[in-house]
TrEMBL record:
This is Methylmalonate-semialdehyde/malonate-semialdehyde dehydrogenase [acylating], mitochondrial. GO terms for cellular component: mitochondrion. Pfam families: Aldedh. Its EC number is 1.2.1.27. GO terms for molecular function: methylmalonate-semialdehyde dehydrogenase (acylating, NAD) activity. GO terms for biological process: L-valine catabolic process; thymine catabolic process. The keyword Oxidoreductase applies. It comes from the Eukaryota.
Length: 474
């Protein structure tokens, strides 16, 4: 019902030079507490990745609209930053309940625009919900510190205070989780928030905005603009915006980091990845193969924490044929079809990029152990599907190793020892996440201490997550 009310105004759709009389819904801007139709003349089509049908359109907001959004944030900040922590907490307590009650509706909108399976889409919402639940602990998170008698007759204390208008720029791969990393935490601390969702998947964010309003967030505390480069430049340049959170590719992230910080803003850029899973021969084989397959191919590999590179150490090399068999068994289908393990890639361009990186591996001498390029998904022949693909005998100079593929492709390297494996991982310029598969505590400890990567996972015991969420780990 929320979706219908947001999208009720229909506009004519133009495809190429043809103008169809049918209509597609338009995505609204959210400015000063109102869902408004953009006055722009520039619109982008949003496609269902399983069919490539146009399902909605999103505006490139005009300069005037973006200014109205940031002005609304600035005005709202004056009173919002003065509200009590307890009243902000109450809003987020209601918000987390609304998200929980609507998880299926949110997941459906994600699958429609992003393509991932419904189970993955629910996981996407669930991970974001956990952040919203965390905001409800704001009464202790905002505590400051005191140090009495720092010198004679003098005490020191610190407060945690909001900084003003903050902005978020989000990617396409987690339409719920990543926006929910951004505005709830910023807002509960007393900041107001300007959000630019990915232009490819804005629908879920609009539902989340409506729920936030229903939870009682005052007008102007969250504003949403849409667009691409002009919207990003606007956020990097506008003097009222004090801090930017970015999640997405290296290309965009480095640009935003530089442009935003040149303008005196705090910028955090969370960017691309090439995550290695080191497989030791003493690992639990069953668990390891299941987890590798889930982490490499789940969500069609479009996760920043996908384990897209395996390093088989010593005897673990002999597990490769079984890994291939398990990957073969995964079912590729539209995300809303029962039994689908992985859905399509986001766009035809993404499919082209992924298939050409697979080909580059073949051309550079890797062995194509499983080729998902010709996958046939009955009834969805126009979708952007690539099936699970495994490249063996990969070496560190190959393009399929040096570039982030962001598709259902696992590249497999081999190493003689743990030291050799660590050496490979540490030479790779990406450092988002990594995992080691072993049953030996000392090996796991050595790995976590010596590897130069931000997040390390050591599944020495079976994972403490239920089957339902297995494919939904970031
Ligand atoms: P993207 O960089 O193409 O887009 C992200 C955002 O930046 C979008 O809102 C987009 O409009 C904007 N943008 C795109 N190109 C731009 C440019 N040249 N200049 C300015 N703005 C630009 O990323 P994506 O394809 O949507 O997402 C996939 C990428 O995100 C992958 O590289 C993935 O690893 C990364 N990612 C990282 C994390 C993390 O936490 N590190 C999490 C999820 C995704």
């Amino acid at each position: 019902a929320i979706m219908r009310s947001l999208w009720k105004n229909k506009v004519p759709l133009e495809v190429g030079r043809m103008c169809y009389s049918s209509s597609v819904p338009t995505t609204k801007l959210f400015i000063d507490g109102k869902f408004v139709e953009s006055k722009t003349s520039e619109w982008l089509d949003i496609h269902n990745p399983a069919t490539n049908e146009v399902i909605a359109r999103v505006p490139k907001a005009t300069q005037e609209e973006m200014l109205a959004a940031v002005d609304s944030c600035s005005r709202a900040y004056e009173s919002w930053s003065e509200t009590s922590i307890l009243s902000r907490q109450q809003i987020f307590l209601r918000y987390q309940q609304l998200i929980k009650d609507n998880i299926k509706e949110l997941a459906k909108s994600i699958t429609l625009e992003q393509g991932k399976t419904l189970a993955d889409a629910e996981g996407d919402v669930f991970r974001g919900l956990q952040v919203v639940e965390h905001t409800c602990s704001i009464t202790s998170l905002m505590l400051g510190e005191t140090l009495p008698s720092i010198t004679r007759d003098m005490d020191t204390y610190t407060y945690r205070l909001p900084i003003g208008v903050c902005a978020g720029i989000a990617p396409f791969n987690f339409p719920a989780m990543i926006p929910l990393w951004m505005f709830p935490m910023g807002m509960v601390c007393g900041n107001t928030y300007l959000l630019k969702p990915s232009e490819r998947v804005p629908g879920c964010t609009m539902l989340l905005a409506k729920m936030l309003q229903d939870a009682g967030a005052p007008d102007g505390t969250l504003n949403i603009i849409h667009g691409q480069h002009a919207a990003v430049n606007f956020i990097c340049d506008h003097p009222a915006i004090r801090a930017i959170s970015f999640v997405g590719s290296n290309q965009a992230g480095e640009y935003i980091y530089e442009r935003g910080s040149k303008n005196g803003k705090r910028v955090q850029s969370n960017m691309g990845a090439k995550n290695h899973g080191v497989v030791m021969p003493d690992a639990n084989k069953e668990n390891t193969l299941n987890q590798l397959v889930g982490a490499a191919f789940g969500a069609a590999g479009q996760r920043c924490m996908a384990l897209s590179t395996a390093i088989l150490v010593g005897e673990a090399r002999s597990w490769l044929p079984e890994l291939v068999e398990r990957a073969k068994a995964l079912r590729v289908n539209a995300g809303d079809q029962p039994g689908a393990d992985l859905g399509p890639l986001i766009t035809p361009e993404a499919k082209k990029r992924v298939t050409s990186l697979i080909q580059s591996g073949v051309d550079e001498g890797a062995s194509l152990l499983l080729d998902g390029r010709k996958v046939n998904v009955k009834g969805y022949e126009n979708g952007n599907f690539v099936g699970p693909t495994i490249l063996g005998n990969v070496t560190t100079n190959m393009k399929c190793y040096t570039e982030e593929i962001f598709g259902p492709v696992l590249v497999v390297l081999e190493a003689d020892s743990l030291d050799d494996a660590i050496n490979i991982v540490n030479k790779n310029p990406y450092g988002n996440g990594t995992a080691i598969f072993t049953t030996n505590g000392a090996t796991a400890r050595k790995y976590t201490h010596e590897v130069d990567v931000g997040q390390v996972r050591e599944p020495v015991t079976p994972p403490l997550i239920s089957e339902k969420w297995r494919h939904s780990v970031l």
